[in-house]
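Sorry to interrupt, but I need a hand with the structure work. It will help me judge whether the discrete encoding reads sensibly. Write everything out right here, beneath this request:
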Amino acid sequence: MSDIIQLLPDAIANQIAAGEVVQRPSSALKELLENAVDAGATDIQVLVKEAGKMLIQVIDNGKGMSITDARMCFERHATSKIRRSEDLFAIRTFGFRGEAMASIAAVAQVELKTRAKGEELGTLICIEGSEVKKQEPVVCPEGTSIAVKNLFFNVPARRNFLKSNPVEMKHIVDEFQRVALANPEVNFSLVHNDMELFKLSAGKLSQRIVGIFGKNYQSQLVACEEETPHVTIKGYVGKPENAKKSRGEQYFFVNNRYIKSNYLNHAVSNAFEGLMAPDQHPFYVLFLAIDPSHIDINVHPTKTEIKFDDERTIYSVVRAGVKQALGAHNVVPTLDFSLDVNFTENWKNDQTRKDEVSRENSYKTYSSPTIKKQDTTGWERLFEGEKSSDIRETAINEAGDDSSELLTFSSRANEEEVESAIAPDPVKPVFHEGERNAGATFQVELNYIVAQLGTGLLLIDQQASHERILYERYIKQLKNTGGASQQCLFPQSLSLSLADYTLAMDLHEELNSLGFVIEEFGKNTLLIKGVPADVQINNEKALFEGLLEQFKHFKSELSLDNKENLARSLAKKSSIKKGIKLKSQEMETLVGQLFACQNPNYGLSGNKTFVKLDLSKIRSFFEK
């Protein structure tokens, strides 16, 4: 029998490894950036074209490579980070597996220029699909420049799998931001299609956060620092009032390596318990420093998942550190009963506060007739079967000496001529689906609308109903001609993060169909010139920012296309909220529009929009 097992050629083995290491352009950028940081670079430039599909180039001023190292770095399992098995438990560098460069070279056209410090000439190497096409001396500056061109040129299925340019660019920006946050002492720049997106100068972590996410974050940063013998935590968390519906801006770094951990994320969220809504997520950038011997980062080729030998301790330290930071910066609200227990004169001299305390702590006292203790004939008569009216007269006569005034309220239930207080009106028509009899309409707790029907009552959730009405309206606008726009008297300029700006540009056509009129207005800035005509707003910028945030939240929670997601997001953002007082005509209009919808029964969250209470059901409440 002939042998059938044979060793795979290096080119095929590299392509197989590339399936895990290089999943999209951002994966290649991540590996190149981490290698540049490991090389001791203080200035790193990133050049990208067509969202990385055409070109990803990383230029650094690190220590460079010799001729032999330049050729060796493209071999499988070739690395300068480890030498023996014990080194796996003391890793402090980003790369160590020796697979990244070989995997990238297997699925792209790579051009490497490098010169070590002190050398007169550098080295140029060109590789296509793991095959070396050129190697020669070249004049170049100290450091390394790696250009990855035409990614997946020899793997058509993987190239067709790539998403649109805005989506791929968002992943590239995410990877760039993670490495930039982990290394604030390094200068970073990112250029896409000859447009500079980021230019970050070396500085403190707080300056790096503001440089990446914008000046709005400067006022919401809360320093977090906790040191224990096992782990040290440093970084910043955002204030609760700035929490968002999406999880995007949450970063954990262990020994400066970005990781994903739902367990540690729960620790931070637990520390914010009671300070924000359950469906909101806080901003944080936290760095954990721990002995490498207590963690295992060799879990996945992307190295974003690690294992701790004592996760519970890490969880407790993270939770305690964040809680202490919030308390130390007076972010946690204090209990205030309009009374300072140490300085009572503060509120006693303030008439407004004094009135508030009086209203909160005063209760109306109702006096009842007093029955003399020595005379219990009234109670004896009760058991003797005498009429309750005689008992009431006796009690009134006995309490005649009491100075309290007795108030007697009449009741229609005692009037013999009234047969039934809730008898249905025979002239009112029976309520059918889509029809409603005109009658009294009012609000309960500024939350529910009560409408009178011919056969009972209709209880309507005003927010859920309005969301359903707006959603179907916006879906129709997106599928048909579009909606009317209300021009802003003074156009508003809105500065966004790069990710949000890219998202807005990707949704430009859909936003225009809804009635938004936006234009590019410089770097990562939009000019809002019009909003949908039927949206009642006072702040165009807040509406647009909230719409993008809601869109990202639904994108992560639900599998919807852009049009349906956008319609749902705008309906959620611009609907009538609970606690809003409505006029009778507004309530009538809302009820009519609800039953004109294709699906009036349920809101966007699957909850009911209305409940019908029949007269038979009402009668059952009062019958034995």
Q: What stands out?
A: Confidence is low (pLDDT under 50) at residues 335-345, 359-438.
